[in-house]
Specification:
Largest sheet: 6 strands, mixed, barrel
CATH architecture of the largest domain: Beta Barrel
CATH superfamily of the largest domain: Ribosomal Protein L25, Chain P
Number of helices: 4
Helix content: 10-25%
Shape: elongated
Strand order of the largest sheet: 1-3-2-6-5-4
CATH class of the largest domain: Mainly Beta
Radius of gyration: 24 Å
Structural class: alpha+beta
Number of domains: 2
Order of helices and strands: EHEEHEEEEHEEEEEEH
Strand content: 35-45%
């Protein structure tokens, strides 16, 4: 999985006043959990642009001014209800030998016979929850639609998993090929024409 580097400064004071001052200066207060003790730091809001405002999944390397480095994933993020500014971010420290759960984007591959026949592909799950060791986290989960005819569904059990597990019930539908209105209308008109032809023959 691709990684993004974010540079930050460790925080000594984590009170409300210092937090407000940070935000007023365009900084985002953050915490790294999962280590021996939480690490509080702050970074410029624009540093998170490629992490937050993207459909892709990334791991993160936090580089602090104290010389500390940490491999993490984004765990939780808070936005301002009106301005949508980032208020706070929680990260979780990665350990090479410990599995983690992360939501990974779904990537459609293959060509569906049902879509070629006029059906409409509907993506029910844009992201899937994956459990894996950090080194085995995929950039995306492939959903191959080559076998989907009109009206078929692709269940999570049909997704190929390589060194990772999908944390969803077996009946979870990843995507499906639905009959389009145009295809339904054409089928109805064909059925009417067939009925009319049969009546004439009589």
């Amino acid at each position: 999985m691709k990684s993004i580097t974010i540079k930050g400064s460790e925080r000594e004071s984590v009170g409300k006043k210092s937090t407000k001052a940070l935000r007023d200066a365009g900084m985002v207060p953050c915490v790294i959990y999962g280590g021996d003790q939480p690490v509080h730091f702050a970074a410029e809001e624009k540093a998170f642009k490629n992490l937050v405002y993207t459909p892709n999944a990334h791991t993160v390397v936090i580089e602090l001014n104290s010389g500390k480095k940490a491999d993490v994933i984004l765990q939780d993020i808070q936005f301002h209800p009106v301005s949508d500014k980032i208020l706070h971010i929680d990260f979780y420290a990665l350990k090479d030998d410990k599995e983690i759960m992360m939501e990974i984007p779904v990537k459609i591959t293959g060509t569906s016979p049902g879509v070629l026949a006029g059906g409409v592909l509907r993506l029910n799950q844009r992201r899937l929850k994956v459990k894996a060791l950090p080194k085995n986290l995929p950039d995306f989960v492939e959903a191959n639609i080559s076998g989907l005819e009109m009206g078929n569904k692709l269940y999570v059990t049909k997704i190929e998993t390589n060194n990772f597990k999908l944390m969803h019930p077996d009946n979870t539908v990843v995507c499906q090929v639905r009959i389009s209105r145009a295809a339904m209308k054409a089928a109805q008109e064909a059925a009417k024409a067939e009925k009319g032809g049969a009546k004439k023959k009589k």
